[in-house]
Amino acid sequence: MKNVLVTGATGGMGKAICSLLNEKGYRVFGLDYNEGEDYGNVSLYKCDVTSMDSVTEVYEKIKG
């Protein structure tokens, strides 16, 4: 399974992109400043992409 990371994942376009990629068989990791609930094969993470600390924290969570 291929992985993809989408920023702005809880907004209208971001959520639509995540859903489409999920339907196409991708494992989707969604980042957004706002919180959201996981759906389908989409894992959402609260992240401020302008903050390296925030990005690093999410990276460590995803990397496991």
Could you characterize the architecture of this molecule?
The chain has 64 residues and is an alpha/beta fold. It contains two helices and three strands; from the N terminus they run E-H-E-E-H. The chain has a three-stranded parallel beta sheet, with helices on one face. The model has no long low-confidence stretch (mean pLDDT 92).
- The amount of helix comes to 25-40%
* Number of distinct beta strands: 3
pLDDT < 50 stretches: none
Number of helices: 2
Main beta-sheet annotation: 3 strands, parallel
Average pLDDT across residues? Answer: 92
SSE map:
Blueprint: E1 3-7, H1 12-23, E2 27-32, E3 42-46, H2 52-63
Parallel strand pairs: 1-2, 2-3
Q: Which features characterize this protein?
A:
single chain, alpha/beta, globular
Quick recap of the structure?
The protein has 64 residues and is an alpha/beta fold. It has helices spanning 12-23, 52-63, and strands at 3-7, 27-32, 42-46.
